[in-house]
Amino acid sequence: MSRSVTAAAAAIAVVVLVTPFLSGTYYQQLLAQAFLYAIVAVSLDFVWGYAGVPDLGHALWFGIGALSVGHTTTVLSDVGLVTEVHGSAGRYLVGVVIGVVTATVLAAIVARLCLSSRRSNDFYIVVVTLALATAAVTVYDQTPGLGGGENGLFGFNLPGVSSLGWYYITAAMLAVTVAVALVVVRSDFGLLMRAVRDNAPRARYLGYNDVNVKIWVFTAGAAVTALAGAAFAMMTGVANDGQFSFTLATSMLVWVAVGGRATIVGPMIGAIVMSLAGAKLNEQFPAQWTIIEGALLIAVVVFIPGGLLGPLVRLAGRLLAHRHPPRGRVIAAAPAEPDRPAPDGPAPDADGGGPVIRIRDLVFGYGSLRVLDGVALDVVAGELLCVVGPNGAGKSTLTNVITDGRLRSRGTVEFLLPGRRLGDRPAPHEIARAGVGRKFQIPSVFASLTVAEALLLADRRGALPSPWRRSATVGVAPSVIDIVRIAGLAGRADTPSADLSHGLRQGLEVAMAVAARPRVIILDEPTAGLTAHERHDIGQVLEHLRDIGIAVVLIEHDLDFVIRVSDRVVVLHGGRVIEDGPPETVRGSDAVRSAYLGTAVR
Ligand SMILES: Nc1ncnc2c1ncn2[C@@H]1O[C@H](COP(=O)(O)OP(=O)(O)OP(=O)(O)O)[C@@H](O)[C@H]1O
């Protein structure tokens, strides 16, 4: 930790320690509540700000924690279901555990149902979380046995803890939550969270199960929020429908949006300031305060997407960074590792030039439009195969169908790669982990990740990054260093991908595909936007990959480049392979000439 950060943390600690002595019991209670709300805001920022999962019913998890404590200490005790469990404190502990476990399990089920369908999108989770939280309030209010009704459950404060005690307990809980959240979002796993938020499909094609990442983060956020809800109930001795109401859920969104998404500190401050202001104003103007909150949320989302405090938090970060520049990540050549596929040395288990992908009778269409019409093709290890064909021939579609087994309806794509056997319709991340890398035709990068961070994730190829370690060095194969240099990315290790030009993004895409240490690499137009000199250099890198046993599949329009670099050329036209052979044969083919000149092919 730098000296400035330590000094800032020490100053905050002193203020937090001294404040209760300058205020009365009332403000100690208000501040303790605000700290618990701040924990909730940090957890929502983790889920929504960093992993990009919009949870509109986040209050539900808070309410579950609160109600669980209320129930185990009142209703269930009364009917004899929870009696003296290690004394009175045990009952509270049971309530906390039940609340956290219930919220965790329910959140995992909700997230799995909403996110695991191939067609699911953010809209699903928005609607479901909103509907669930709303339904929960109705069910609770109409089920007296749950302790619902106007007043809810009350009078079960944890005995023996004063307002001052709660003040310090909640301050400590908040400090731990913020510290853990900051470590995780700055760790290598934090990169994966942002990658999934920025561009989930790209993360998938690097071997990551984006759905699982979102489910874990969503579930962790629910668990932390339930814990805060349980503490809230123990402190106030009250549990009612207000704790999982839509109003509270909206307030949570406001705290994060106003504080600045993906900053952790911003939502924390937002929650403390706004909940204190709300507590004061709500007493005098209850109706107006709700309207003010709603208007603020709309205004921030529309006009200041970074949040009111976001720019201030970032400015403070930059000022600190100015005095102590953040440690950037260094891209360096990694030594070959015997247990990993190494593109810069003969692959230990390379099968000496046999087919690694065998495609037979592959058919695919969009509605009534048949795009692939019985494609048969072998992709061979240690061969540079070019797939050419006029626009609309189905080249990109072929790549999509090879790399996403779920798209296949007819025909087979067999992966003859060492390691675990893939099923009939493997998901993109499974195919990527088996060693099939791809570069998209239109550069597909992670906007907020720097060049080095993107390469770090590519290098891990689906292996879960550490949630606490922050790698300072990104070790990649020497061929990746070559591509970084050729593409003009050297010296840009710490540049966010969003700030790269189109050409540089192309280069980064190729570098990411190679960094994933593939056994098969499919590159859709890797030379688009490059100069003749850069094409020549990229050609050399591709030949090198071929020479060390990787199957290289190149989709290209530049026929001179194709003839120069390829070992074999496949010509696709109208979704069919009309020529498959050495480049010279293909160049002289009448069928190919007809296809390119637009004449019908028999
Ligand atoms: N999502 C989609 N929905 C409907 N039709 C599509 C879709 N994507 C591609 N197509 C159609 O499928 C056909 C093949 O497209 P594809 O992009 O695979 O061709 P291509 O050979 O890669 O072309 P290009 O060289 O221009 O990239 C085209 O007629 C295209 O319009």
From TrEMBL:
N-terminal signal peptide: none
UniProt keyword terms in alphabetical order: ATP-binding, Cell membrane, Membrane, Nucleotide-binding, Transmembrane, Transmembrane helix, Transport
Transmembrane segments: 6-27, 34-53, 92-111, 123-140, 166-192, 213-233, 253-277, 289-313
Keyword Transmembrane helix carried by entry: yes
CDD domains: TM_PBP1_LivM_like
Coiled-coil zones: none
Residue ranges constituting the ABC transporter domain according to the UniProt record: 357-599
Cross-referenced InterPro entries: AAA+_ATPase (IPR003593), ABC_AA/LPS_Transport (IPR051120), ABC_transp_permease (IPR001851), ABC_transporter-like_ATP-bd (IPR003439), LivM-like (IPR043428), P-loop_NTPase (IPR027417)
Region (Disordered): 334-353
Cell compartment(s), UniProt: Cell membrane
Gene3D superfamilies recorded: P-loop containing nucleotide triphosphate hydrolases (3.40.50.300)
Membrane topology type: Multi-pass membrane protein
SUPFAM superfamilies: P-loop containing nucleoside triphosphate hydrolases
SMART domains to which the protein is assigned, alphabetical: AAA
Molecular function as annotated in GO: ATP binding
Listed name of the protein: Branched-chain amino acid ABC transporter ATP-binding protein/permease
Lineage, opening ranks: Bacteria, Bacillati, Actinomycetota, Actinomycetes, Streptosporangiales
